Amino acid sequence: MSDIQTTKQLSGDMLSPSSQHSEIPLGTSEDNSASSTNNNDLSPWNLSNIQKLNVGELYSEQTKSLRPWTEFFHTNQFKKPASIKAAGRRLLLNVEHFRTNYIIVAVILSIYCVITSPALLFVLLAMGAGCYLVTLKNRESQLSIMGRQIPTSQQYIAVMGLCVPLLLMVGAGSAIFWILGASVFVILLHALFHQTPNQEAFGVQMEEA
């Protein structure tokens, strides 16, 4: 009788699940959500990271890199490059050296293109006025449609979206191509023929004729 009880006890122990071999969960939902949140925070294009960009620091950096216009338009510095290799090096160094000046040149060409196109100027002013009215409206109370509040950013997008057909009608596409073409032409012409100042500061020795 005792042998039968011992056999049943041993069989019961073999069939019962061992606590040592219990499954360990690989990760809880909280851990997964926390890890996904950390991954999103590390993304450089995350919305919160974009909002943290300091516009003042960016403006200050560009202002410091602005070169004197007397240096930019110095006629004695314009010279034909000695070779194609020297032209390529000069182009890269000048774009780095005068990058802020080139940005200003592109902006000036853009303003010139808009001013000489009254219809385009009128549509852009209307779009700016619409965005300004949206700003004033949201200072008092946020716009709501059928009980749903519309974010200010979506209101701006709506105003710009309404102006897109008008911009196409007044030739905004051709104006953009003109601005790009004129900017690239002027920048390439200046960067190729303007001798690079302070070549030693860049650590590059260029062969100039």
TrEMBL record:
Subcellular location per the Swiss-Prot or TrEMBL entry: Cytoplasmic vesicle, Secretory vesicle, Synaptic vesicle; Membrane
Span list, region Disordered: 1-43
Polar residues bias spans: 1-22, 29-43
Transmembrane segments: 102-135, 156-189
A Pfam family per the record: PRA1
Primary location class: cytoplasm
Keywords: Membrane, Transmembrane, Transmembrane helix
InterPro entries noted in UniProt: Prenylated_rab_accept_PRA1
Designated name of the protein: PRA1 family protein
Record organism: Rotaria magnacalcarata
